[in-house]
């Protein structure tokens, strides 16, 4: 690999593939952008091990969207020395909650999986993806692209990734140990992984930068690829060592 194009691993979320990152990656031609496939891997641990095992370079920049952000944190947990920069987009860090909230999540995901098996992935996606984008995107070619992406997956892959998310580890204690330049990015209208969660996450990661993408839902790398690419480019320009000046857009609460 040419040193002029350093590796940038772009980890996709639930039922996402290369299409989730394609438009953002197109705005980053100076980087060797790679999007792994999860196949039937059914734990975040296994996904993180897959990323590490399939990346030949000793060091790389790492960005994860949604479930991919959780995988990125597990990569950092295992091999912090290999990650030069970390970006967490429209994601989370806590384990499955206890009690009624957990049962509600399990039931909701089981209902979607049942629909996928009975009516097909695209029919399930039409229900699920409606809440994943800004309302202005409904019925647009972009929404059709998202449905096409979902349809490329199989219900067994959906089941495996649901299993991974329901068994997600808590990464709260890890956040304070992150030492590489970190971007925490969230769309203003992301109702799936809301901004308030990212404010807390940014406050817990030393010297992180919080960036808010306007007029976008959860699928920010597809909905606002130029805004995301610009934020990623600025993040990658931060030096690996030494503290950067605090960013004025960072809003946090302990």
UniProtKB/TrEMBL annotation:
InterPro entries documented for this protein: AB_hydrolase_1, AB_hydrolase_fold, AB_hydrolase_sf
GO molecular function terms noted in the UniProt entry: hydrolase activity
Domain of life per record: Bacteria
Keyword presence, Cytoplasm: no
Gene3D superfamilies for the chain: alpha/beta hydrolase
Signal peptide coordinates: none
Annotated AB hydrolase-1 domain residues: 42-225
One protein family per Pfam: Abhydrolase_1
Keyword annotations from UniProtKB, A to Z: Hydrolase
Stated name of the protein: Alpha/beta hydrolase
